[in-house]
Design goal:
heterodimer, A: alpha/beta, Rossmann fold, six-stranded mixed beta sheet, four-stranded antiparallel beta sheet, 10 strands, globular, disordered N terminus, B: mainly alpha, MetI-like fold, 2 domains, flat, binds adenosine-5'-diphosphate, binds magnesium ion, translocase (chain A)
């Protein structure tokens, strides 16, 4: 197997699943090479990966954009990591949903993918995150965050006009300020992709904070799309919205899926079911189960998953 | 014991009796009596005392305003506003208050221009960087010290500094070679100190109220700290900065000690040297506060009528600045951030 060794990994001896307790991270044996994803040859070593994961991982789903490899995050002096040795792939053209009870580390995991976690004092990371074959630590921070952009739980447009919200994302650092007219086509494109153009095109100079909550969130999506990311991170993007706005955004996620990879955190199981191709279930920092949405909800393999998706958790 | 609600607002249900009589004053009084019967004596006394104090303060404020209005309007005339003061004890020949009005305006502008960047910069540094922690704390407590210092202390300290030969460029050197130390610039520099605390505090509070995820939204677009401050944070805190600035301007306009000690309190604006603007800045002058002081019965007592007129104008200026505070503080809904 062609997995490159990294310092932070467990020593060779503990590579077997037995030492990891009952619920080992299921897909950690998948090769890290750049070729189309190859699934580890011995199925016995991946007990909790649904059989049809092969289907999910085949290039048909798109090539692998992001690989989370044995990722652990510690906060301050807490002995237990908030994210514990999680390994996950993210493919082009897929929606990956992270589900799990509150405090299980979903946000922490998401925020480490664009290194936003480094803004939190005392947060430490172990393990690797690879974007298109490159370790994200080796990428320039501003570049990384434009390739892996993010939508937050609270709609948080900047206190400026609708146009400027998107244009701000487009203006790159230390460049000559492009004129409004130069930016307009790209702003329009981003707003169209976010399904907001028809509602706001008559007056782009309106303050963004005058928009409704659902529109604000779509503006934030437009802002995140304007930088042409390869991966879009969404942290419970609908939790502050009404059901209709939620439906609109789910529809949007559906349409965007073909163009980029989406990782969405949600505490809403129905939503995960509606929008996701693959689902990862986390519990207390551990990745318990990962697999295609249908499999995970209909035939969960781990007891914990069964309890959680069956609604009897806790 | 539950806290009593203010009797002024009879408990709900008033809308239930739809008839016009049910809401009439007599009915209200009856309800009030009924409610008061359930109150403890101490509560009744407390509420009564609060009412007396509140009304008393209103009376005091209204009398100041009323007195100044009457006295001011009696002596105020357009002529007074646009003529320069003259050094004469004869009231008919002592001129107007044009120079003190201009002096107040210049003083406010100079002091604010110095205070604004310093205070906003300090607030940005404390909230957005704030490392090392002890230095940030020290900065905050130093600003509190300045806020608590009487302005006369600030004034004589300023005089000590600006009379140093090194500082002669800010005022002028007298014939004997001594640095005069008094000018719009030196007074403005010390005036900025009394404006800094309110601008700093308002800016800091506004920055602290910005939710962290708004900053992160900017970083998540690959933006640097600096462009986040410039494009996201500063626009968000503009109302806070405006409020603090208007407050600081009011304090500058109303201060007397620094004017008397550091502006020279010359009757007229006396520019230094030939350069137009710079000459005024390094020269001396007076403001409405020093004019009132010097002409009131408390001071030289030269012209109490004109002192009243000047005091009235000063009051108008400060009230206008206070109105600015509330306009600036009224949050533009388009800029109000969600928490
Ligand atoms: N800034 C922080 N400092 C310390 N502990 C944190 C911080 N943020 C999150 N945690 C802890 O990390 C764990 C995971 O949190 P989080 O990733 O926010 O979970 P989720 O998004 O799944 O609800 C929780 O136990 C939480 O208490
Ligand atoms: Mg979360």
């Amino acid at each position: 197997m062609s997995r490159p060794a990294t310092e932070s990994h467990d020593p060779a001896g503990s590579d077997g699943d037995g030492t990891r307790g009952a619920y080992p991270p299921p897909v950690r044996r998948i090769a890290l090479d750049r070729a189309p994803t190859v699934v580890a040859d011995d199925p016995a070593e991946r007990p909790l990966v649904s059989p049809s994961i092969e289907r999910a991982l085949r290039p048909a789903t798109g090539r692998e954009r992001l690989r989370i490899d044995e990722l652990s995050i510690f906060y301050g002096d807490a002995p237990k990591p908030a994210v514990n040795a999680v390994t996950l792939p993210v493919h082009e053209g897929e929606v990956l949903a992270l589900i799990g009870p509150s405090g299980c580390g979903k946000t922490t995991l998401l925020r480490s993918l664009n290194r936003l976690i480094e803004l939190t004092p005392g947060a430490r990371r172990q393990g690797r995150i690879v974007l298109d074959g490159e370790d994200i630590d080796g990428l320039e921070m501003t570049r990384l965050r434009r390739r892996v952009s993010m939508v937050f739980q609270q709609p948080n447009p900047f206190p400026m006009s609708i146009f400027d919200n998107v244009a701000y994302a487009l203006r790159e650092q230390s460049r000559k300020r492009p004129s409004k007219r130069d930016l307009l086509p790209r702003v329009e494109h981003a707003l169209r992709r976010a399904g907001l153009w028809d509602e706001v095109s008559h007056d782009l100079s309106r303050p963004a904070l005058r928009l409704s909550g659902g529109q604000q969130q779509r503006l934030c999506i437009a802002r995140a799309l304007a930088v042409e990311p390869e991966v879009l991170l969404m942290d419970e993007p609908c939790s502050a919205l009404d059901p209709i706005s939620t439906t609109v955004i789910e529809q949007l996620i559906h349409e965007l899926r073909s163009e980029l990879a989406i990782v969405i955190v949600t505490h809403n199981l129905q939503q995960a079911r509606r929008v996701a191709d693959n689902v990862a279930f986390m519990y207390l920092g551990d990745l318990i189960e990962y697999g295609p949405t249908e499999e995970l909800f209909e035939r969960p393999r781990a007891e914990r998953t069964r309890e959680y998706v069956g609604g009897t958790f806790g | 014991m539950s806290t009593p609600t203010l009797p002024a607002r009879p408990a709900g249900g008033a809308g239930a009796g739809a008839g016009s009589g049910a809401n009439g004053p007599r009915e209200r009084l009856r309800r009030l009596r009924a409610e008061l019967r359930h109150w403890r004596v101490t509560d009744l006394i407390g509420v009564a005392a609060a009412w007396v104090v509140g009304i008393g303060l209103c009376v005091v404020a209204a009398s100041i305003l009323g007195y100044m209005l009457v006295q001011g309007l009696r002596y105020l005339s357009l002529d007074l506003l646009v003529t320069q003061p003259e050094p004469s004890l004869n009231q008919t020949r002592s001129g107007g208050i044009l120079d003190p009005i201009l002096g107040t305006v210049i003083m406010v502008i100079v002091g604010t221009l110095i205070a604004l960047p310093l205070a906003v910069g300090a607030a940005l540094w404390v909230v957005e960087f704030g490392r090392p922690r002890w230095l940030a704390r020290t900065v905050e407590s130093m600003i509190e010290v300045i806020a608590g210092s009487p302005s006369i202390v600030i004034a004589i300290f300023g005089l000590a500094i600006f009379q140093l030969p090194l500082m002669s460029w800010m005022s002028f050197t007298a014939d004997g070679g001594a640095v005069f130390g008094r000018s719009f610039l030196t007074a403005g520099a010390m005036m900025s100190l009394i404006a800094i605390p309110s601008i700093f505090t308002a800016t800091r509070e506004a920055l602290l109220s910005i939710p962290q995820h708004l900053r992160e939204a900017s970083y998540a677009l690959g933006k640097t700290r600096w462009s986040t401050i410039r494009a996201v944070l500063l626009p968000s805190v503009r109302p806070g900065i405006a409020t603090g600035t208007a407050l600081g301007m009011g304090r500058i306009a109303g201060d007397t000690a620094i004017i008397v000690v550091l502006l020279g309190a010359t009757l007229r604006i006396e520019p230094e040297g030939g350069v137009p603007l710079w000459g005024t800045l390094t020269g001396t002058g007076s403001t409405l506060t020093s004019y009132v002081y010097n002409n009131s019965p408390a001071g030289e007592g030269g012209a109490p009528e004109k002192a009243y007129a000047a005091a009235f104008v000063l009051l108008l200026i400060v009230l206008a600045l206070n109105a600015l505070v509330s306009i600036a503080g009224r949050r533009d809904p388009a800029r109000t951030l969600q928490k």
